[in-house]
């Protein structure tokens, strides 16, 4: 049963091909950083990746960009950092201690 939310088969096939190309490009960028110890890691994808992107038609490049942004969002790229505290860390935070030096504004806490 098809509905308005189910992508068409040709759209799913295109997405699968785009994702495969994106995976290949990311793997090549990782290989470049690992093999050459590129000092611009995170900025430089490597000459091979740059050449492939330059030779890619604009529509495919736009689809790859949209897919990359969607994948980064899915993996929480823009999420604030999360801290995972152990039980001992919570216990330390919950323990009231008096510092051995006076607080700048007086009193016994910040």
Draw up the topology in text.
Layout: H1 9-36, H2 47-55, H3 58-74, H4 87-94
Helix pairs in contact: 1-2, 1-3
The DSSP helix count reads 4
The overall pLDDT, averaged over residues, is 83
List segments where confidence is low: pLDDT < 50 over at least 5 consecutive residues.
none
Helicity level, as a percent range? 55-70%
Task: Indicate the overall shape.
Answer: elongated
Q: Number of DSSP strands? A: 0
Strand content: under 5%
Order of helices and strands: HHHH
Write structural notes for this entry.
The protein is mainly α and 110 residues long. It has helices at 9-36, 47-55, 58-74, 87-94. It is elongated, with a radius of gyration of 24 Å.
Summarize the structure.
The protein has about 110 residues and is mostly helical. The protein is built from 4 helices and no strands.
Keywords:
mainly alpha; 110 residues; 4 helices
């Amino acid at each position: 049963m098809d509905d308005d939310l189910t992508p068409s088969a040709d759209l799913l096939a295109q997405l699968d091909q785009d994702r495969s190309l994106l995976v290949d490009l990311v793997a090549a960028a990782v290989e470049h950083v690992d093999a050459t110890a590129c000092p611009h890691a995170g900025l430089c994808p490597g000459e091979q990746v740059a050449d492939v992107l330059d030779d890619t038609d604009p529509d495919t490049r736009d689809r790859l960009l949209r897919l990359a942004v969607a994948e980064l969002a899915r993996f929480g790229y823009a999420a604030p950092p999360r801290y995972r505290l152990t039980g001992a860390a919570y216990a330390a935070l919950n323990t009231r201690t008096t510092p051995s030096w006076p607080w700048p504004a007086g009193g016994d806490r910040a």
